[in-house]
Amino acid sequence: MRWIELADRVFASRYAELDQTLGLVVGDDRCLVVDTGTDEHHGAEWAAAVREITALPWTVVITHAHWDHFLGTAAFPGADVWAHPRCTAEIDGHARDQAESWAERYRESGRDDLADRLLAARVVRPTHEVVDHVELDLGGRSVTLVHPGRGHTDNDVLVHVSDDGVVFAGDTVEQGAPPSIGKDGYPLEWPAALDVLLDLGPRIIVPGHGEPVDPGFVRGQRAELAVVASLFDGVRSGTLSVDEAVAQSPYPAEATRPALERGRVA
Ligand SMILES: [Zn+2]
After folding, report:
1. Ligand 1 center to residue 171 CA distance, Å?
2. How far is the CA of 178 from the centre of ligand 1 (A)?
3. How far apart are the CA of 180 and the centre of ligand 1, in A?
4. Ligand 1 center to residue 105 CA distance, Å?
5. What count of other Cβ atoms lies within 10 Å of the Cβ of residue 127?
6. What is the pLDDT of residues 124-179, one digit of tens each?
7. CA atoms of 154 and 167, how far apart (whole Å)
8. How far is the CA of 175 from the centre of ligand 1 (A)?
9. 23 C-beta neighbours (distance < 10 Å), count
10. How far is ligand 1, taken at its centre, from the CA of residue 245, in Å?
């Protein structure tokens, strides 16, 4: 694990596993933990790292309902846990399915230790809702939680630290790999979600996976996702075959073909 100090008492924490990036914002009265990690073991390691920086009470925000962002929450006892209501619904309904399906992938690649940890993680339900946006007072500084519309999922939440121009973007932005357009993604709406992010005027954007980036990087990813959206639309309306769309995609075939296949039946 490696800390990056982004601004005064604003930190990103980088992990080798999944190239993941977690966040921490420290106020005068409490701190805000952005995502809790892949399982309770990881969550405990993350909580201990937070405690090296601050002893203040913690609040948690979950950027979206993908297992690697919320299965460490049990390591933050007593915390208020903020999330979009559809994130809570997905955690209620499918956290176990997500864990089982990824545990299977870990076992296939010989990583039984990670599979066991994943299956052992207790699922913690978020306690507070971010429907549109919510301002949290951390004492001497406030942070805004923003749902930018549908993009990477239908329950993405951005964390805007306005006094320092930092946005924690969850997986709406990805560095080091193409954005993940999973079966619960909304490629047609994703560019507009990034417009909401860019309109916040950030100086630094922290992806859920990869290194912190600048607004120019996000504008570039937005332009690529707009191409993907037009290809998805072309497949959906029958003007493009999936193979033609894959050939025109700015991302490798394996990153876009599943989404384009879904476009065909959308
Ligand atoms: Zn995700």
Report:
1. 5
2. 12
3. 7
4. 16
5. 13
6. 999 999 999 999 999 999 999 999 999 999 999 999 999 999 999 999 999 999 99
7. 19
8. 13
9. 26
10. 23
Q: How many angstroms does the Cα of residue 101 sit away from the middle of ligand 1?
A: 15
Q: How far is the CA of 255 from the centre of ligand 1 (A)?
A: 14
Amino acid at the residue 153:
T
Q: What one-letter code names the amino acid at 43?
A: G
DSSP state of 141: -
Q: What are 227's two structure tokens?
A: 């191409």
- Pseudo-torsion of CA 50, 51, 53, 57, nearest 10°? 90
Residue 196 belongs to what H/E stretch?
Answer: helix 190-199
> What span, in angstroms and rounded, lies between the C-alpha atoms of 183 and 172?
15
Instruction: Decide: pTM greater than 0.85.
Output: yes
* CA-closest candidate to residue 72, choices 113, 33, 41, 34: 41
At position 37, the amino acid (one-letter code) is G
Cβ atoms 262, 183 nearer than 8 A? yes
State in Å: Cα 190 to ligand 1 middle: 13
Q: How far is the CA of 241 from the centre of ligand 1 (A)?
A: 27
Q: Which tokens sit at 224?
A: 């690529």
